[in-house]
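User: My advisor, Dr. K., asked me to get a structural model of this assembly before our group meeting. I'm new to this, so sorry if the format is off. These are the inputs:
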Amino acid sequence: MELLRCENIGKVYGTGDGQTVALKDVSFSVEKGEFVSIIGASGSGKSTLLHIIGGVDKPTSGKVFINGVDIHAQSEDKLAIFRRRHIGLIYQFYNLLPELNVDENIVLTHMLDGRKPDRDRLDSIVEYLGLTERRTHLPSELSGGQQQRASIGRALFCNPELVLADEPTGNLDRKNSAEIVELLKESNRMYGQTLILITHDENIALQADRIIYMEDGGIIKDERIRVAELGGCN
Amino acid sequence: MRNTKIIHQVTLKHMKMNAKRSLISIIGIALMVMLLTCVFAGKDTAFKYFTDLGSMKHGSYHYAVYDIDQPMLEQIKNLKGIKEVGVTEDLKFTEFEQTGNPEKPFLSIRRYSDNALNWANIKLVDGRLPEATDEIVISEAAIKEGSSIKIGDKISVETFRRFMSNNMESGGTTFSSPTFEIPAGETVEVPDRMFYFVPGTEFGDEFYKEHEEIHEKNGFAQDFTVVGIVEKPDFEERQGEAWYTAITVFDEEALQSKTFNAMLKIDPKNRNKRLTSELSNLVGYENMYCNDIVLVFSGLSSDNSLNYTVVTVQTFFVALIMLISLVLIYNVFALSYDERVKYLGMLSSVGATAKQKRSSIYYESTLLLIPALPVGLLAGLGLIKIAAGFMGPVAGKLFNAELSETVINSIKPSLNINPLTLVLIVVLSIVTVLISAYIPARKMSKVGPIESIRGNRSGKAAKRRDSNSKRLLSRTSEAMISSRFLRNDKSKSSGIIRAVTIFLLVTTVICYTSSLVMQMVDFKLKESSITIGAEKEHKYGVFIAGDISQEDRDEIYDTLNSCAGVSNITTVKRDVTSMLISNDSISDEYWDKYYEIASLHHGNDGYTREQFDSEFKYPDDFSQTFVGVIAFDDEVFEQIAKETNAVSYGKDENPCILLDSASVSTDSLIIFGMKSKDYRYLEIDHPFGVEVGQNVGLEPMGYTRKEAEELGLDIDDMAFAETEVEGYADFKVISKADLTELGKYMGGMPPVTLYVIVPMSVADYIDQIQPAENALSSFIYFDCDNPGSIEDISAMAARFQEEGINVFFSTASFDVTEFRDILSYLIRCILVIFISIASIICLLNVYSSISALMVSRRKHFAVLKSLGTTYKQLVTIELRESIGMVLRSILIAAPLTAIICFGISYILISRFGHFTITFPWIFILILVAVIIAATILMTSYCLRREHKIDIIEEIKRESV
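Assistant: The format is fine. Below is the predicted structure of the whole assembly, which you can bring to the meeting.
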């Protein structure tokens, strides 16, 4: 079942001589529950693509459909609400709010949606992320790996259908990187969430069901490695 | 050296990148400089202008001393602070053959040294001032009253002193204005202001039957040429003198008299704060005059408290300006700490020393100061110039009782810029900027490379607290984020909290202090000036002083009633010293406070309460105190009685209401030969010792015929003597009320005199029992819209005056504006302007802080938006945070403000006496509302701007 469809996405920065084409006519779709890696060199347009899919950036041309909804056709506020309900974003530099502790950062997106966080779910996610001892710590008191776990917790707490991870291991050592990828895979399996992960580490990319190779703003190869285990437990 | 250059280049780039913030800082500093300029140069300009205007009244000298001799003059010249001396000599009188008024047959010849002539403010009407010792000018009054004298005429002067002899065998002759007595069989020199009995008139012939006027030549004789006609000098203003003024010049060496007068000018560069008392000790307090209107604007008034006020207000302004500017500039550096840490840390990693890093801050301060200084100075001078344009009309309004419109218009206010003042402004501005940059510079100098790499925050890491999960689960996301921002991001919010705190503190302190200073000025300058409500409610008035026949009184009322357009006729009777009350009927509070003031006059000479009681409360011959009477129409009185919850009374019980407000001050209680160093004003809350429902005894002044006979006095020869009531007449006290309770009917300051309020019927009774000459004065107020009627009423008053009956017509409010109002008005204007500009600086500071906070939150907003936060939610978060910061500021400002206000009031009260302190609660509530509204508006505005940020760009930044 198709969750995401990108149709002829183009993105151009600047005007005139200073114009930079970041994406050119990118089209692809992702099935629900799929784990997709996007791999490419720096400047290949993978992060731009992810941001456009996540609704934090607008395409110059083309459309993005999530569950059949053209997300960029919505107003800014509606898109914000759509984003917090359907999309989980994980960044390379975590982007946790430094004033909020681990628990608060994790439930933030959920609370922004006006919902009361479920205590048991929070406990289980914190435990699952291995942050039980760090729940009341501020981000500045955490290691990089722990911060990234908290950021994953924030992305997962709302149980979004689509999780977008922009080089989540780019700032971590090998051990932490492996743990984070494992967590994401586990969550993909456990919660049946669709996961799109950007990386330039081929070993990490190979752990996905499918790898999309990008170069100069376009897809040069879309390779399925294995059949996704669709569904999972919620 | 090179390294420092690089640091300066980076600093400059940083400023350019934050152009808006730099601009706000420049505006703030420019406003500070502008305010300092206004305080110093503005004060100089205004004071110079008012000094010039004040000089037009009595002259431009600072002191005048009378009846001094040559050795005394030498001593005066040697006093510290005396710059120049001008001498005047009163040669007494000469016959004035060309007079047009038989009641004024003399010329009063006065000789002035050149200095004195210049300072005496003699205004030419025609011709020129005397330049040679045989030239003379004559008062214009002589011409106006029919004299044939003109410029070019020669007059022969042979001066004499005036004496009068009483040829009666018994019974002295007493005069009341001027007051003096010629005992039977004696000859005495008459006061200068003594009138002249014209032979051939009824009064003259009567007088010369038993008396004689004798002229004793004093040896001065000279011929003069009249070279000019001058305006009537103010010493000739009183009516009834027998002379016109004639002024000539002379050389000090040619002094004719043993005693003479002198005018003194003080040296502003060599001030002597004790000059007044030193002069007083030398010549006697009664023989000197302080030209306060000129002195006060030089900060050299004879009254220490006025000087103290001028200096205190100025120092207070400068301190506050520097404080708010300090916070503004400090905030600019503190708020950009994070950004600076990055580049300073980077520079540190390439070898920048602590000194070089500090220089970055000082360099930035200098760059902010360079444009702000000239802009602020010019803006300040421009503002003063504009304000000076308004000074003319203001002065016209303020001085209208003192000076004519022509005189006021002849002096134009001009900028008075002293180069030293400019230097002082520049130095104060530089000092302020350097002090505010000092702490950030010290802090920044400690930034090392590691802080740059880590992107460390300025404040200490927020203290971790265990989250209360219940609380977490019960709150909204907006509440959670805003409270965490407030709690965990103190470095950012502290700028706003500081700015709001300073806004609240400074404006409240200024307002509170202004109210205290205004009270102080009012007490000091307007004490005992009680006003009647009807004065302000009516456009015109007829004033009848003292005794007038019923026939004349009826004529006045008939004229008023018959004139077209006259309406709302209201009569109030009033006199300050109508009756006498036994000192036993006055409260202990009254005597306690009088003693306190008397003790101040006595200084440290061990003045005891017993001494005071024997001198004031129970003196041997007169243990009574004057009581003033205010009478309203019976209906108005009944209304007052009702409003003051009066007890019931019968019409024949002589009801009265006691004014339960009085005051005493070092100015109002004058003890001859003594003067307290400091001013002190005390309010007396309950001056009377008589209770409501009791009778108070009031005694008319004078004696009954029987009493006089018992005392061996001839009542027929005594002025203001005969009364029909023996001892005290009883008046029933139906209520007591203070000025606040009587606000509808009376106003002003608690009076020095004790007052009783009575209905008009009781006032008539008082007039019956009083000697006729001591009748209560009547004030008949009315409105009129017919100019013809006004002319008729004015003519009626003039007719009465010609007949010697004191009936006066006033075309405007009775509220005479005097010198004291000038200072009061000036201070009010200055305070309003000061509060406004100070508020603008504080609000700029708040805006700058909010703007910086929003800029620093860009990344937060980007993250929140990427997580699905709507704009409305962002607004809610930030507004909650802003309001939280304002509330926190209130919590900080409240005790600080209370402490400062307490300190200020303590100082002022200890210096000036007890007065009611009303905390400006309403103003503070308005302030809080203003700052909340301003913060909300500024936050919304800045957030709207930040909302347009590119999420991606911000997200890409390394860390929040």
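One thing worth pointing out at the meeting: The domain at 33-47+83-224 of chain A is CATH 3.40.50.300 (Rossmann fold).

User: Perfect, thanks a lot.
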